[in-house]
Amino acid sequence: MVTPRARAAGKADIRELSATLSRAFYDDPVSTWILPDDKARSKHLARVFAAMTRHHHFGYGGVEVACNGPGIGAAALWDPPNHWQETRRAELAMTPSLLRVFGLRTAVARGVQEAVRRVHPEEPHWYLAVLGSDPAVRGMGFGQVLMQSRLDRCDAEHAPAYLESSKPENIPYYQRFGFTVTGEIVLPNGGPTLWAMWRAPR
What is the pTM of this model? Predict the structure, then answer.
């Protein structure tokens, strides 16, 4: 078996990496809560990830994919220190896609965003906004090469890292990379819980 390799994503990768992430997050507690329609969720998630990647994450050079051939097995969306918040321009560019996806659930999606923003650390850090592997390659090291690629840079820059885990079973996975739980984020209106996790540089 060929070991997966991490590489920087190009604009030509956005469609495929968004499709990979939509499969990765299909059964995610936050995704299923905001987008309860099982049949439409994959298509909607792909649109959300494409908009986020194209209009926000891509411009900061923090988008990486893991491959062991031509296909994208996993993707990570990182933001460098002091750039985790979308600019007004990025928000405006994303709005049409997000309204089309969320429709009447837009207020719910915004509530999630606000709850997460309220507790986001102020200290400069690399922010792992999204990390996901296609279920077909889960457990084969795709996520690991993406994590290690960026965490090596964090350590070289002596920068901390931060993420939110939306699944309790993923917490031990992140702990193996040096992250520790710093708090719980209970989403409003009966939503699921997220776990804030912080990693000091090594």
Answer: 0.95
